[in-house]
Amino acid sequence: MSIPYVSPQEFSAEILRHLKHSLGKDESHASVYDWRMSLSLALRDHVVDPWFASTRRTYEARGKRVYYLSMEFLIGRLIEDVAVNLGLDAVAEEALSALGQDYAAVVANEPDAALGNGGLGRLAACFMDSLSTLGIPAYGYGIRYEHGLFEQHFEDGAQMETAETWLAQRHAWEFERPEVSYPINFGGHVEEHEGKAVWRAGETVVASAYDTPVVGWQAQWANTLRLWAAKSTTAFDLDSFNRGDYMAASAPEALARTISRVLYPDDTTDTGKELRLKQEYFFTSASIQDLLRRFLSEGGDLRALPDFVAIQLNDTHPAIAGPELVRLLIDEHGFEVSQAITTARSCLAYTNHTLLPEALERWPEDLFIRVLPRHHRIIQLIEAAHIAATGSDIRILEHGEVKMGELAFIMAHHVNGVSALHSELVKETVFADLHSDYPGRIINQTNGITPRRWLYSCNPPLRELINETIGTTWPDDLQQLDGLSVHAKDPAFLDKFQAAKDANKTRLSNWLQARDGVSLNPDAMFDVQIKRIHEYKRQLMNLLETVALWNEIRENPNAGWTPRVKIFGGKAAPGYVVAKQIIHLINDAAKVINADPATREYLQIVYPENYNVSMAEILIPATDLSEQISTAGKEASGTGNMKFALNGAPTIGTLDGANVEIRDCVGAENFFLFGLTAAEVTARRAVPEYARRAVEASPRLARVLQQIEGGVFSSDDKTRYSGLVQGLINHDYFLVTCDFDSYFGTQRDVDKAFADKQAWTRMAALNTARVGWFSSDRTISGYARDIWKTPSLISARGSRQDVA
Ligand code: 8GP
After folding, report:
1. Which atom of ligand 1 is closest in space to residue 422's alpha carbon?
2. What is the tally of helices (H) and strands (E) in the chain?
3. pLDDT number for residue 492
4. What is the mean pLDDT of the chain?
5. Where, by residue number, does the polypeptide cross the bilayer (predicted)?
6. Ligand 1 center to 514 CA (angstroms)
7. Are strands 151-155 and 564-569 parallel, antiparallel or unpaired?
8. CB of 280 closer than 6 angstroms to any ligand 1 atom
9. Ligand 1 mean position to 271 CA, how many Å?
10. For 222, 237, 555, 671, which has the most beta carbons within 10 A of its beta carbon?
């Protein structure tokens, strides 16, 4: 497959054709929205041929397909992704300029598809890109939420949430598939007829498909992201309408639609809501029904299903896939119980993304029975088979709960963690018993990120420098970046590397100025922590260090301080009180510190509202220092850490998640390490009053806590943060107090290192050069090799270069 050449003139004509025929607009009246839609539709046209060709090739190959089931796909904008992968980015820009339009403004008009909360959802999006780039036949399956992740606003520094409305405008990339729909049952009861179970459902909704093609690098392959929307079986109750009861008339549709209405904003905790369980079953059942229909329509024998179907469960949210597949095999295809379980298990694999116990889903058993009575019975059968095979003490149904982690584990042929450290901790902690029941089942697949989005398209200045230094074939072979290492000794190269960073810093400054009226000092170090707000990620420790630094600059203003801009970004789950207090405190502290004339030159805090994927694309290339400071043992992997390093920002971080592997790759001398290790964290928790002792031992920290508790940053409400501070002193589960001094000291090492401009740039360049291993292409190759056993169907990889 190759991409036919399109000239900018031809592409302009294609855009104009869509403007006229798809948007019904005349050039003289077209809005930015009209231009954006026309551009998107023109690009989409070019995806269709590779998409069809990939589907044909998959059918011909009669091989295995991957089904990636994920409750979240944090896609962001698609225009640049598609343009870049089609090789049409420059053409699109030129075509639009010829039409008198500003390409950047048109691209920025696209709302982020925020169908995810954070790392897990963004990983799924990177994986879709890599699956297509590698030519592995795959479907992503998820939910077409009407409202993505909430929009964040600050009111007097406090987080407020409003509904996100990405679908208020037409979504350019998707194809509606009204003919692809499945009934999804809930509730009711199970009857036995001649030894056969019959589920009499109490409620049925319809899952209806929307397909978005996902084109890979250089359009060699395109897979499908199929998202399900919930619809009613009876769209409209005409009787009620005729009686004049208009509300009742629309009720069935409204009720059914509720299921795909909102993304749950809770990033870590089991919300325990019936609706969430229904969402999980809704998209999982639709996906399993869909893949079985495809398999059977190709004449497959279900006993051979595992040779053709690899189902990857992205965390426990789709863990009901096991019982659902077993149910369908038994109830609809006449399988014996043990045969059904074995067959299903041979298709299924499960990725764990967190060790936080509260994030391993558990459902109250009575709720589960009410919503999924047949599945409850099947889970009993699965549990019995597991105990019979292993003699294990581990149960799926226990203490009135259904434990989805255990279910996912037992029904998977492989379970993987997402970094080397995390995978070991999975074996030692949450799944220690199951690990001994099923040795060898847990493996590691360290996360990765797509270099197409996270370097090629978000960082044009660095992309160009790399192209001119090592050639242009690195975006699908990222280890080639290693070729930059030798240039890191060359002052001329380092100057160019620094110039690229400076250009990105200027772009960020201009963007912030235009958006929020905030100006940044371009010579300052841009020190960035962007991610969900969570106690274990320790944004609070970063803020405490900032206040300590402020104190010290005030006391000793002429000590030659390295100017810093501390940039925070991220949302807190609306119900997570402590995380919201941390946001409030950061904003309160920013107000006071930024207004201090004595320190203004050296220290500024910036917290732009509504952090999302698009904002990350501007912030990451402009970052000098990457903050990866979680309590060791708590961050499963992190992927932001990889994005920063790739874009030339050294890390200050703990030995947690993939930080460990990043440090191994970039070299200890190019990474600012601090803090307790995972083992030391566990040991420290056993020490009585460890937090109080840490505060007593650190006058610097004690002073900062007194200031915060005393209302220095909250003069309007002096006790606002007393709970937060007392919480730290009395129950600092995430060891902010214990790591504080080490963190503060290491930050001062960073100050010194940054002052030596050339040495710093060299460190930054070596970060870029040495993290090619963290491409999600490498990760997906690992899954394909170790878990799915799926080869690439791109025959002539070498021919890609011819296409460029
Ligand atoms: C995240 C992990 O916190 C992060 O370390 C990792 O890089 C990422 O997954 C991808 O593997 N976990 C989640 O996003 C997560 O557990 N979310 C679910 C609770 C919704």
Report:
1. 5
2. 32, 24
3. 98
4. 95
5. none
6. 32
7. unpaired
8. no
9. 16
10. 222
Query: Does the pLDDT of residue 356 top 90, yes or no?
Result: no
Task: Tell which of 447, 471, 502 closes a domain.
Answer: 447
User: Do residues 424 and 536 both lie within one domain?
Assistant: no
Is the beta carbon of 417 within 6 A of some atom in ligand 1?
no
- CA–CA separation, 649 vs 768, rounded Å? 8
- Pair (603, 744) in one structural domain: yes
Which tokens hold the place of 432?
């220690």
Q: Burial, 274: exposed, middle or buried (Cβ in 10 Å; 0-12, 13-18, 19+)? A: middle
Name the active-site residue from 353, 375, 487, 800: 353
Same domain, 407 and 556: no
Residues 414 and 307 in one domain: yes
Q: Between the CA of residue 343 and those of 292, 302, 307, 336, what are the distances in Å?
A: 13, 9, 10, 10
Span from the CA of 118 to the centroid of ligand 1 (angstroms): 7
Are 408 and 534 found together in one domain? no
- Can 639 be counted among the known catalytic residues? yes
Q: Does residue 161 sit within a domain?
A: no
Tokens representing 769 are: 């050069």
Measured from the Cβ of residue 522, the count of other Cβ atoms closer than 10 Å reads 14
> In the chain, what is the greatest distance between 2 CA atoms, to the nearest angstrom?
88
Q: Residue 741 sits in which domain range?
A: 520-775
Q: d(Cα 797, Cα 790) in Å, to the nearest integer?
A: 16
Sign of the four-CA dihedral 711, 712, 717, 723 = negative
**Cβ neighbourhood burial of 619 (10 Å; 0-12, 13-18, 19+):** buried
d(CA 731, CA 748): 28
The reply to whether 353 belongs to the active site is yes
pLDDT in tens, 651-698: 999 999 999 999 999 999 999 999 999 999 999 999 999 999 999 999
Total domains present in the chain: 2
ipTM above 0.95, yes or no: yes
- Active-site residue (options: 532, 564, 566, 580): 532
Alpha helices in 598-735 (DSSP H): 613-619, 640-646, 659-666, 678-685, 690-697, 699-709, 722-730
12: three-class secondary structure by DSSP: helix
**Ligand 1 site, residue 70, Cβ cutoff 6 A:** no
720 and 584 in contact (C-beta within 8 Å)? yes
Work out which ligand 1 atom sits closest to the CA atom of 123: 10
For 528-557, the pLDDT digits (tens) are 999 999 999 999 999 999 999 999 999 999
Identify the sign of the CA torsion 714, 719, 723, 726: positive
- CA gap 437, 458 in Å, rounded: 45
Q: Which among 71, 74, 117, 120 is the best mutation to test ligand 1's pocket, defined by most ligand atoms within 8 Å of the CB?
A: 120
Q: Are residues 437 and 584 located together in one domain of the fold? A: no
Q: Are residues 340 and 201 in the same domain?
A: yes
**Domain end (from 414, 447, 480):** 447
Q: Which residue(s) pair with 653 in the sheet?
A: 628, 673
Residues 73-91 have pLDDT tens digits of 999 999 999 999 999 999 9
To the nearest 10 degrees (0 to 180), the angle between helices 32-61 and 79-86 is 50
Cα 643 to Cα 655: distance, rounded to the nearest angstrom: 17
List C-alpha distances in Å: 464 to 86, 380, 468, 469, 618: 18, 58, 6, 9, 17
**Any domain includes 487:** no
**Cα Rg of the chain, angstroms:** 27
Is any atom of ligand 1 closer than 6 Å to the C-beta of 354? yes
The answer to whether residues 546 and 676 belong to one domain is yes
Q: Which residues in 132-144 are b (16+ Cβ under 10 Å) and which e?
A: bbbbbbbbbbbbb
* Residue 529 lies inside a defined structural domain of this protein: yes
Q: Could you tell me if residue 140 is inside a domain?
A: yes
* Minimum-distance ligand 1 atom for the alpha carbon of 269: 19
Q: 354 CA distance to ligand 1 centroid (A)?
A: 6
What is the reported pLDDT for 360?
87
531 assigned to active site: yes
Which CATH number belongs to the domain containing residue 141 in this structure?
3.40.50.2000
